[in-house]
Amino acid sequence: MSIAILGGGAFGTALAVAVGKTRPLTLWAREAAPLIKHRESPRLQGVRLPDAVTVTGDLEQALGADTILFSMPMQSLDAFAAPISAPLAGKALVACCKGIDLRSLRGPAAILAQHWPDAIPAILTGPSFAADIAHGLPTALTLACADETTAQTLQDQLSTPSLRLYRTADVTGAELGGALKNVMAIACGAAIGAGMGDSARAAVITRGFAEMTRLAVHLGARAETLTGLSGFGDLVLTCTSEQSRNYRFGLALGRMERFDPDITVEGVKTAEAVTKLATTTGVDMPICQMVHEISGGGTSVAEAIQYLLNRPLKEE
């Protein structure tokens, strides 16, 4: 079973490094020439691609693989998939991005299923930084796929001695856990950046997890999925480490500092999408709504914190 990874960014390259140590694969990149020449990504300096990884700029070549991983920003996935006319029926299509599409309010696996209804969609998600995967540091992820046979095949294909995959059939829960934790990471960063302290961060993580679970269950996910790697595990990682772009963005908001506009912060668009979902579903998502407000400049961090503290008291 052949494997292709679409996307030569940090995460796609890191996966290619990890999986390429155990089996051959193809890595497609828009700017393939530097990767072909140097066998190293500028985003992962000092990490060389294994010899078993074939780098190409030919998308049709990559789409010929049996298993195709889509590693690109969430808000780019739909536009990337739309013009592809290659038949992908029966192939395993694995989303490796986290978020909710702002236009359709769908998760990444759902976007792939929409474009290729005869393919088998899946999502690879969980607590991970590209640099850790690339350097072979122990990492555990969730592989979510409704088709059990395909899930087992993907688990065997993509697991390595340092990258351990756990499978689940709850694609919705895995999608939402990976998406919503980015919003909570922004909130935690803002709390720390504003000098609110670690106790405030713990409160945001805990109440944020309650929000994540509430929306996921309402949309058909299993609550226990959110307690796993794709939910709680990823939440803890991104809410406590400055390797997280979403957390760093929150820190900048809290400190009233400028943040590099060229850095992708998936949680900003996800917060906007979740605010729309909250309106249409009637699910109470106060932290997500406040992150949307402060990210867009409509509310200050201090005002958002005051709003959350002044909400009616209730049972946990």
Labels describing this entry:
Rossmann fold; 316 residues; 15 helices; alpha/beta; N-(1-d-carboxylethyl)-l-norvaline Dehydrogenase, domain 2; 8-stranded mixed beta sheet
Question: How does this model look, in words?
Answer:
Catalyzes the reduction of the glycolytic intermediate dihydroxyacetone phosphate (DHAP) to sn-glycerol 3-phosphate (G3P), the key precursor for phospholipid synthesis. Pathway: Membrane lipid metabolism; glycerophospholipid metabolism. Its EC number is 1.1.1.94. Keywords: Cytoplasm, Lipid biosynthesis, Lipid metabolism, NAD, NADP, Nucleotide-binding, Oxidoreductase, Phospholipid biosynthesis, Phospholipid metabolism. It catalyses: sn-glycerol 3-phosphate + NAD(+) = dihydroxyacetone phosphate + NADH + H(+); sn-glycerol 3-phosphate + NADP(+) = dihydroxyacetone phosphate + NADPH + H(+). It contains 15 helices and 8 strands. It has 2 domains: 168 residues, NAD(P)-binding Rossmann-like Domain (Rossmann fold), CATH 3.40.50; 136 residues, N-(1-d-carboxylethyl)-l-norvaline Dehydrogenase, domain 2 (Orthogonal Bundle). Strands 3-2-1-4-5-6-7-8 form an 8-stranded mixed sheet, sandwiched between helices. The chain is 51% helix and 12% strand. The chain has 316 residues and is α/β, with parallel strands linked by helices. β7, α7 and β8 form a beta-alpha-beta unit. The mean pLDDT is 96.
Task: Give a quick summary of the entry.
The protein has helices spanning 10-19, 32-38, 59-63, 74-81, 108-115, 130-134, 148-158, 171-193, 198-218, 223-226, 229-240, 245-255, 266-281, 286-295, 301-309, and strands at 3-6, 25-28, 53-56, 67-70, 92-95, 120-125, 139-144, 163-168. It has 316 residues and is an alpha/beta fold. It folds into two domains: 1-168, NAD(P)-binding Rossmann-like Domain (Rossmann fold), CATH 3.40.50; 173-308, N-(1-d-carboxylethyl)-l-norvaline Dehydrogenase, domain 2, CATH 1.10.1040.10.
